[in-house]
Amino acid sequence: MLWARSSTASAARISRITGRGGAENTAAGFAAGATDYLTKPFDPWVLRAKVSVFVDLFKKTEEVKRQAEQLRDRERRAEARPDDECVVLVVEDPRQ
Length: 96
Hints:
Blueprint: E1 2-3, E2 13-18, H1 23-31, E3 37-39, H2 44-80
Parallel strand pairs: 2-3
Antiparallel strand pairs: 1-2
């Protein structure tokens, strides 16, 4: 089993690498929490590509979380402003 060993530990189990093939073992790997399943022997380039995709997905997910938090902060600040800071524009029709 391949485990992440960094601050990305929340995405701990990336892939299951095993000598056991077959649909039943693949299903068991996913049921155990694997997000991908490779059987041995595997191509190192395929493994690198898969890990790269998962790292990119993790980074994008973190960016979306950060942006959502920024939006929540902006909404809280907008709600906290007193009403007297609002600008009201009254336009009178000069024909009247």
